[in-house]
Amino acid sequence: MSHHIIDFRDVRFRYPDGTEALKGISFRITHGESVGIVGANGAGKSTLLQHMNGCLLPSAGEVTIGDLQLTAGTRREIRRKVGVIFQNPDDQLFMPTVFDDVAFGPLNLGMDEAHVRERVESALSRVNGLALRNKPPHHLSAGQKSAVAIAAVMAMEPDILAMDEPAAYLDPRSRRLLIELLKTFRHSKLVASHDLDLILDVCERCIVIRDGRVAADGPSAELLTDGALLEENHLELPLSLQRR
Amino acid sequence: MSFDAAYFDLGRLDRLSYGETVMHRLDPRAKVIATGLFLVTVVSFPKYDVAGLVPFLLFPVLAAALGDIPIGFILRKVLIVSPFAVFVGIFNPLLDTRTVAVVAGLPVSAGWLSFASILAKFALTVSAALLLVATTSFPGVCHALRRLGCPAIFVSQLLFLYRYLFVLAEEAMRIVRARNLRSFGGRGRGASVFARLVGILLIRTLDRAERIYRAMLSRGFAGDLPTLRNSRAGSGDLAFAAATAILLGVFRFLPVTEGIGRFAQGLWS
After folding, report:
1. What is the helix (H) or strand (E) element at residue A65, kind and residue range?
2. How far does A167 lie from chain B, in Å, by closest CA?
C-alpha cells in the first residue's frame, strides 16, 4: 500500500519575512506507522505539519505523499488523503452548526446525502459527540470543540492523519478518550505535541526537531527516556517516567 | 454598557433562538417570508396614517407571546437603536406645521403626525426583525434566504459573520480585560492605547482568517459552502404564511382601526 507513505526529502522552508523555519528535514514514514513530532517552541513542528497537505509548499526539497509529489497542482488530490487537525479548534470549525461542519468535508468529496449523513453520524459517535450535532460551535466547551474538530476530519476518512497539539484544550478524561481514539486509527499518523505521555502512549516512533532540523529519530521508548536529549530540546521526561 | 455586558446581551438573543416553541418550530422560510411581507406592508402606509398602523402591533405581540420571547428584552433593543429614527423625523414637526386635527383643545400639526408614523413604522419593523432572529436560529435564516434565491456568496458571508462574531467578540474581550488588569487610575485607557488595541485585534483577525481559510482548503473547499437541506416546509408552515399574508392584507386595505372604534362606540352607547 504505497499510498500511505510520507516522504520528506531535504525539505526547507523560508517564511516571506526571511525566517528559515525548516532547514533540510528528511524522514520517511511507512504505512500504518504512528509518529510523534516533538521539539521546543519554535522548532518548526507546526510549519512541518503545514507541509503535510500543502498549506505550505517547500522552498526546496521534496514532500511525497503516497505516490504523489506535493506541488501546487497535486495538493487538492493530497488533501483528500491527508487529514490535518489544527491546533485551535475555533479555526477548524467554521460552519454554523456542528452537523454542517462535520458534513463539510464529505460534501466537498461529492458524496450523496445518505452517505454524508452516515459519515457524519459515525464520525460524531466515535468522539462521543452525537448529542452536539445541532449546536453552533460557539456554544461548545473547548473540549467539545476539539472533539468535533477531530470528527470533522475523521468524517473524510483520510489515509493519513496529522495533528498539531491535539490534547491542548482537553481535560484529563477527554485526553484519555482521545488517546484511545487515536489508537483505533489504523492508518499512518503524525502527532506534533508537547504532551510526551500522549506521544509515548500513541506513537511507537518519535522524531525530535531542533531548529528546523531532525535532531533524533527513533523508537519513542528510547528517545523519550533519554533525559539528556530531551533536556537539550527544552523537553522533560514524560511524567509517567519521572520518579518523585 | 460595558463590553462584557454587550457581549452577553448578544449571546442572549442567540440563545433565545434555540428555543422549542411553536414559533421556533415553524420552517424558517415561512418566517422569513412572513417577516418580509410584514415589513413591506408596514412601510407602504402613507406618511400621515398613524391610526392604520396600530393594528399591526398585534403581529409582534403575538409572535413574542407564542415564541416565549420576553417583550421587555425586545423593547430595550428597539430603544437602543431608536435615535436613528428620531433623528430622521425630528424636524418634521418644525417643517410641516399645517394643523390637521385638534385633540383635547391642542392643535396637532401634520409634522407631528408624520413623525409619529415614522416612529411607529420603525418600532414595528425593528421589533419584527428582532423577533425573526429571536425565534429562528441564524443559520436557519441564512439557509432560508439561500433557498429563497439569495446569492450563495452573500449567504456565506452572513454565515461566517455569525460564526466568527462571537469568536471576535471574545478575542476583543480578552484584550480589553488584559488592558484593564494592568491599567491603574485611568492611565492606560486613553485613545492612543485604544487605537493600538484595535490594530492588534485587526492583525489577529487577519491571522485567524488565514488559518480558517487553510482549514477550509484542507477539507476540500472550492468556493461554495455546501450544506444538506434539513428542513421541510409542512402544511402548518404554509398555513402560517398564508394566514399572515391574509391578515396583513386585511389590516392594510380595510379600515380596521375605524371598525374597532365604531364597534367600541356601539358598545358604549
Report:
1. strand A60-65
2. 18
